[in-house]
Design goal:
alpha+beta; two-stranded antiparallel sheet; about 350 residues
């Protein structure tokens, strides 16, 4: 674990550019929901920016590695965390959203503990907190530096944000990044921050379902879009830019190669857009190696994030080089480093 102070950031699963597109919809209900979601996100983003940095927690020597989950209900308000509705070890409630959030927190904890020996997101057994039923028709889910928050969706574009377990894994992984490499949420380091969340969010889903790299769908947010939307998910790691193409939602803008890297001032320099490039690299490495993606490929990415060699401003090339070094350090000059080098070459990111 790194020793520098962590500065919490607001990270949402639905990017601003997508909500801004919906805010211009000719459907007044869809446009209004998107505008309200953007306003709520802006308020949360400002609150995080003004928050004081926090020091990384240290694990107690005798602390057992087990999840400590609490799920709250905002009751369609915006005060956090809300009313406690389920705590660790409690029986399931009558609210399916509460139960999905609880299960998703546990699934993410399990992947990090059982695959990598990590005790929660900070490595020190931090509590896993989630608030459901945030605001009315809120069309997003986010990590605010301290906890998860889920909206119910608008029922026209987005469904309940607790439905895809990879969304839960994605947002909690922002906590993991916060307490390890602490990648700055801007430009290429921000795109890497988003990509790492997609990587481990997808691995949570694959681990939970017992899927190999070949069996996985490599989609982020599959099941989140309404059936009337022309799309399958928010993002595709296998084929960035193909997750959706809809009259209302627009066209998935993610590139899969550095030749198509998007330079923009919006979305913190395109953090949700350009994450498609490192996403594709991980997919290629994982499928080249075969078997369970959380094992060799996931282990390499985990080693990079926890190795202490990244800076908050790390760019794609530096991250790619770090994965090659991590692959060699753990596995030697074998299939693993060759798969990593081949993957980054395929997306146009140099490693030499």
């Amino acid at each position: 674990m790194t020793s520098h102070a962590q500065h919490p950031v607001f990270c949402s699963i639905v990017p601003p550019h997508l909500l801004e597109h919906l805010a211009r919809s000719g459907n007044p209900a869809i446009a209004e929901t998107a505008r309200r979601t953007l306003a709520a996100d802006a308020a949360q983003r400002t609150a995080r920016r003004l928050a004081a940095p926090t020091a990384p927690a240290q694990a107690a020597p005798d602390e057992a590695a087990k999840p400590r989950r609490t799920v709250y209900d905002a009751e369609h308000g915006t005060d956090l965390p809300g009313v406690t509705v389920r705590e660790e070890g409690a029986e399931a409630t009558d609210d399916a959203t509460v139960n999905r959030a609880y299960a998703g927190l546990g699934a993410t904890f399990d992947l990090f503990l059982k695959a990598y020996g990590r005790n929660s997101m900070d490595g020190a057994g931090m509590k896993l907190l989630a608030t459901v039923h945030y605001d009315r028709n809120y069309a997003n889910a986010f990590w605010n530096g301290e906890q998860m928050v889920f909206g119910d969706g608008d029922g026209e574009i987005f469904l309940d944000f607790t439905v895809p377990v990879d969304v839960i894994g994605h947002e909690l992984t922002h906590g993991f990044t916060q307490f390890t490499a602490n990648l700055e949420y801007f430009s290429q380091s921000g795109a890497l921050n988003e990509s790492v969340s997609d990587v481990f969010g997808s691995l949570v889903k694959q681990y939970t379902l017992g899927q190999s790299a070949a069996e996985a769908d490599w989609l982020i947010g599959e099941g989140l879009l309404h059936e009337n939307v022309q799309g399958v998910a928010l993002r595709s790691m296998k084929a960035p830019g193909t997750a959706y193409d809809d009259d209302v939602l627009g066209k998935d803008p993610q590139p899969a190669h550095m030749d198509d890297y998007v330079r923009t001032s919006s979305d913190n320099g395109g953090v949700h857009i350009n994450s498609g490039i490192p996403n594709k690299a991980f997919y290629l490495a994982a499928t080249e190696l075969g078997g369970n993606a959380w094992e060799r490929a996931g282990q390499i990415w985990y080693d990079v994030m926890t190795g202490g060699t990244l800076t908050p401003e790390t760019r794609f090339t530096e991250f790619a080089r770090a994965t090659a070094k991590a692959a060699k350090a753990r596995y030697g000059d074998g299939a693993e480093i060759q798969a990593v080098l081949k993957a980054w070459t395929a997306v146009g990111v140099p490693t030499d």
